[in-house]
Amino acid sequence: MPAKISINNVKTFYSALRSDIAGNTLAMVAAGLVPLAGIIGSGVDMSRAYMVKTRLQQACDAGVLAGRRAMGDGSYNSSAQTQTSNFFDANFPDGYINTKNKTFTATNPTGTSAVVGSAEVEYPTVIMKMFGSPGIKVAVSCQAVLEISNSDITMVLDTTGSMNFSIDDGAGGTTTRIDALQTATKSFYDIVDSAATGTGARIRYAMVPYTGTVNIGEELYNLDPTYLIGGSSGDTHPYQSRRAWYEYEDTETTVIPAGTVTETYEQLQYVGNNSCNTFGNNNNAVTVYGRNAGGFYYVDYTWYPSHFGYSNGDPATKSGDPDATYTFDRTGFTDFPNYICTRRATRTTTAPTTETTTVTKYTLDPTVPGATFSYWEHTQIDLPVDGYVSSIAKDSGGSYINSAVTLPFQVSASPTRWGGCIHERDTIASDNVVYNSSSEMITPGATKDLDIDAAPTNDATRWRPYWPEATYFRDAGNATQTYSSSTNKSQVSCPLKAKLFSTMTETEFDNYVDALVADGGTYHDMGMLWGARVSSPEGIFQTNVTEAATNNGYVSRHLIFFTDGQLDIGDNYHSAYGVERHNGFIGGGIEATASQNHKERFLALCDATKAKGIRVWVIAFATSLSSEMSNCASANSAFTSTNASSLNDTFTTIAQTVADLRLSQ
Question: pTM of this prediction?
Answer without folding.
Answer: 0.73
